[in-house]
Fold each of these.
Amino acid sequence: MSSGANQQNRQRTFHELEHELYLREFEIQLLKETSEAVSSHLHLDQLFQLVVERARDLIQAETVLLPVIDRDCKQYTYAAGCGKNADEIVGESLPLEYGICGWVWRHNRPWWTGILDELEPEERNRWEQEAGTVIMVPLGGKKHFMGGISGINKIGADNFSKRDLDLLTLFASQVSIALEVAMNIEELEAAQKEAEKYQQELQILNKELQITNKELENLALYDHLTRLPNRKLVQDRLLQQVHTARREKLPFSVIMVDLDRFKEVNDTLGHHVGDELLKKVGMRFKHALRHMDTIGRLGGDEFALVLPNTNAEMACLVADKLLKTLDIPFDLESATCSVDASMGIAVFPYHGDDVPSLLRSADVAMYIAKRNQDGYFVYDTKKDKHTVHRLNLAADLHQALDKGELQLYYQPKLDLDSKMISGVEALMRWNHTERGFIPPDVFIPTMEQSGMIRRYTIWALDEAYRQRMEWQKAGYALSMSVNLSVYSLRDRQVLEYIQSLQEQWRPPPGALVMEVTESAVMGDLGYVSGILSELSSQGVQFSIDDFGTGYSSLSHLKRLPVNELKIDRSFVMEMDSDADDATIVRSTVDLAHNLGLRVVAEGVETAETLDALKDLGCNQAQGYFIARPSPPDELITSLESNGWTLCRTDDEAETVGCTRAAPGH
Ligand code: C2E
Ligand code: MG
Ligand code: MG
């Protein structure tokens, strides 16, 4: 070799070395910069991008991709990429058993052309096409395998060199920690966001729960109508007050309040007016009291007050003040209305030293106030005896049916044209095992007030329908009148029960008559008229009982589908001796006939009255002169032995007009 050629060779070697050196410097510089860059970029997307771009520069690949394995190691997703076709691949996900990434994960070692020699024969065919053009190193974090960095197609050469593999391996180990940290941070942030979202949802739920709890508490402890504490809360406060008063040795008072004639307001003006009145009364009372006092509604028109540190004298002043609040009439939506109240005062510890005895004493005192029309009354043991049995009435009434103490008696009605007994009225009787006979005027209001009226009305209806049928089977055609309380007339369940009885027993039209008082049908005319029409269409007739004692207007009566007027016994009983009563009876008969109604006179006690009624054209008579109310098994025999003729069959009933419908109806 000539010295010139040697020189040339040396120069080339020198250039190659210089280039090699340059490359090394570049690589070192790149690694250094990368190292700095990754530690300052914490945002994962930016970091991914930086890694693929630097890796591409480092190994001179046409394309560099960064597949990341998901948490449950089922698939990997190309999280970043750069170079040729990278855009199309980034974002794609593939199953882990598929592709080189899966291989790298399974073997936990880099993929490179040199690997080819190590592959099992069956693996070779599968991978060897790609081996020359792809390089991939695993990206292992501190805790787990994250994915890899792969290069595709070496620029300017057939495949990647061992040096590329070493560089990429070094590069991967350099960036993996930063990537893992960034990925963890992102996961942490996502988890934090999720937690914040849950927390917000939890807060909303908590708020809703609080509202629901409050509503539930309100329902459980406050009266829905007046929003005042209910019986339970009043008793609770009372118990607390008993404890405090015992500890501090101070008296306190309980006042039981019951509105006077509230039932009349309800019956005549309707329940919604009654409700409005209760609300306003509650408000007035509340405003008249101190902050520390409790006023609650126990139910119906009954209120109770708990007044801490209050002796009998002070309680009387409070009662006076409360009564005065009722002096001004109440302006209600549809009427102006006045109401009075009766109040009973009981003082701890003199009239009771626990909750039940205080409430009972206040109740007894209230009854005395009501009876004496005194406004209020302070409990007095001496007067207690008279009232105790009234309180027990409701309790006894609960068992009256089971004990067989209740019975229906029947009082006949005489048809004045045919002089035949054409029907009966069912009247409830209570024969108390200890107290003896209790009149219906006393126990029916108790049934109404204690919520038992439905149960007893249904019982009476059952009895009456069954008894009428029994008589029909025995050959007697008697119409059956049943009294319906105002509560029952507004009770859908009772009305539906009557309908079901009509369907069950199928009595002839007009054989069942429901007696309702004047006041019961007043008030909500549209509603009442609807109900009467509904039952009328099934053959049930209606009678206005105790006519003359209420204040029903003619225009009202005309619009209601009623069939009968029953003149109140107070007019009938005195008509022989009292000219005014005779006039009232006469004009009522005329009025009823003008309206096309049948007229029944109740309280006929003498033959003279009976004759007078016949002369006036009254249709039917009922009273002691004909017969007193009696048990069903005695009625027929006693009537027949006294010479009365009874309507015997439906045909006969029709010919004599015993069960005929009123003219015009
Ligand atoms: P009412 O429906 O007006 O019943 C007529 C009342 O007059 C009965 O009183 C009856 O015994 C009485 N009476 C009948 N003839 C004469 C007579 O010639 N002279 C006198 N002085 N009185 C006579 P009773 O049985 O005491 O019933 C009183 C009220 O109790 C009934 O008045 C009715 O409003 C109510 N009542 C009775 N049973 C029931 C029932 O099952 N349900 C409902 N809701 N109320 C009933
Ligand atoms: Mg009646
Ligand atoms: Mg009556």
Amino acid sequence: MSDNNFILPKDFPELKNDTFLRAARGEEPEHVPVWCMRQAGRYLPEFREIRAGKDFFDTCRSPENCCELTLQPLRRFPFDASIIFSDILVIPQAMGMEVQMLTGKGPTFTDPLKEPEDLQRLRAKVDVSKELDYVFKAITLTRHKIEGKVPLIGFTGAPWTLMSYMIEGGGSTTHSKAKRWLYRHPDSSHMLLKMLADVIVEYLVGQVAAGAQALQVFESHAGILGPVEFREFSLPYLRDIARRVKDRLKEKGQDVPMIVFAKDAHYALEELSESHYEVVSLDWTIDPRSARDRTGGKVSLQGNMDPCALYAPKEQISDTVRKMLEGFGTRGYIANLGHGLYPDMDPENIGAFVDAVHQHSKLLIKQK
Ligand code: CP3
């Protein structure tokens, strides 16, 4: 498939900016590091140009395209980290499901799971190194082409979020089809969540072997669950993934920080801070000071400006950023948004956000 076979995950260029990795480990670098979820996205004209006329998942399967899309935002803004261009839905595809990205509709499964018997349609044993090899190649290529400018983050969807897509077949407001399984078929739900967790562990370990320097787990649909369901159907798998990935990496003498982003799971902040992740990423519904109090210095925090605050004039963005930094403090903190950038956002305002984080944090650190 690829002409990249000669690119091996070794001899990567030396890392020049490690502020993100140090903050993830609880340190206070010379400035607060910043990156944005969906920093590679349609808000950039150069992104739209590469994506134009191409199928979304074909783009994901091209290591050259993934590398280029990952690097684009770094050419414009002094971000302190990059995230590999890919998608969480490559896992259901690797398990044998067909997913398309339809314009104006988003991800769409041809034949979603309807009843527990449908689990038999999924591949019992997924050969991750074969099925998701194109992601590993994209990571290795990008690690070389990024020239050590900033660290490269690998990622995955968490089991519950992937399960909900596999049953809903796409976006949903109620997620009632997926939640129906939790209440009606709890055993089959656990079976599916376990299958997903097993694939995810292999996938994350493979991403580090390919060159990822940190890992983020997206539980984007945590907020659809309440605390009781979250404790039964999400948290145990998030914990299990972090523990197994860390054990596997340790055997190979590797160690990378892991980030958990359970969107809208403010009810579970204490539990998330004790779930084996170095960093808990927050959406904008959580007050920075209360997040610090509730996590008690056990983890670094990432987030959490409302992405829509980027629609404000630049001076106001700067003010919002300063308040956010004062709330979180400058140690063990990675600035980000509470969710991804939207396609209609002005790149200039994203630049203003990044500059404000750097400028205000340098001042705050100096004043200490
Ligand atoms: O820059 C980055 O953040 C890295 C790339 C990235 C993408 N998807 C690229 C993408 C990441 C980290 C994701 C994760 C992802 N994908 C999540 C978890 C994060 C979150 O948003 O909560 C989810 C839920 C998905 C599933 C998905 N993929 C959705 C809901 C959509 C949007 C569909 C739409 O029409 O807006 C996608 C498509 C997608 N994935 C885009 C990008 C840049 C936009 C579509 C395109 O490029 O054509």
